[in-house]
Write a structure and sequence with these properties.
five-stranded antiparallel β-sheet; alpha+beta; 15 strands
């Protein structure tokens, strides 16, 4: 089906070669009505459907939705995706920090977004055009975690703690303020000259994602990780590694 769309808020004017003389509704509540010969209007709303002359398949709707011009944005925190643009509307999904969304239109307080084959809404204040962390941060943290604690037999808590020490150092005034600089700081991580040479496991990537999304799993003063005690006290000792406080 050859479709060209102009998005105005949540209403879509569709230039459609199909001859439709009635209301049609798919499972996604996409309602299409004929405006003039060869031109139809499509919008998402609840209606009672009369006997249709012609129906539109879900696949055709998906194909149409995928042609919409959208802007990629990212959630800045956990935020609800709602069916309508008001806080009392039904929640259809919850976005995590840095989740990607396709924004159709910024309407001020709310943004309309493409959610599957539906159009839903998110508060504009919770969306940003950039992630709160970069792909480079993600890769570097996952590689560091793998190089320091990559063995499958090591408790996953150690992976979270190792990555958390990096984040705590980034936040500390005593260390550089980027993940790259913390990891590659001279004399700090023995693996730093070659840590990017190895391929992390899936769980290392998952831990890196979790930490960058939800933050450190350790108190902010836990900034040491080594095979020996250091700092003011030991916070935890796991699988031969000390995690110590400033």
């Amino acid at each position: 089906m050859n479709l060209m769309a102009l998005v105005i808020a949540t209403t879509i004017t569709v230039v459609n070669p199909l001859n439709m003389n009635n209301i049609h509704q798919t499972k996604s509540n996409l309602v299409i009505t004929q405006v003039s010969e060869g031109v139809c209007k499509a919008e998402y709303k609840e209606v009672k459907v009369t006997t249709p002359i012609q129906t539109i398949s879900v696949e055709e709707v998906e194909s149409f939705v995928n042609t919409l011009e959208t802007t990629t944005m990212y959630a800045t925190d956990m935020v609800r995706v709602r069916k309508e643009s008001n806080i009392d509307s039904t929640t259809v999904h919850v976005l995590n920090k840095n989740d990607e969304v396709k924004v159709i239109k910024n309407m001020g307080e709310w943004c309309s977004i493409q959610y599957g084959i539906d159009i839903c809404y998110v508060k504009s204040e919770y969306l940003s055009t950039t992630k709160s962390y970069s792909d480079e941060d993600y890769e570097m943290l996952a590689h560091l975690i793998f190089s320091e604690t990559g063995s499958d037999w090591i408790d996953i808590t150690c992976l979270y703690y190792t990555g958390s020490v990096v984040l705590n150092r980034v936040a500390s005034e005593d260390y550089p303020n980027t993940i790259k600089e913390v990891i590659e700081q001279y004399g700090q991580y023995e693996c730093s000259p070659y840590y990017m040479d190895k391929t992390p496991t899936g769980r290392c990537y998952q831990v890196a994602h979790d930490l960058l999304t939800f933050g450190s799993r350790l108190p902010e003063n836990v900034i040491y990780q080594s095979q020996f005690r250091q700092g003011s006290k030991v916070y935890s000792y796991l699988d031969g590694t000390y995690y110590c406080c400033r």
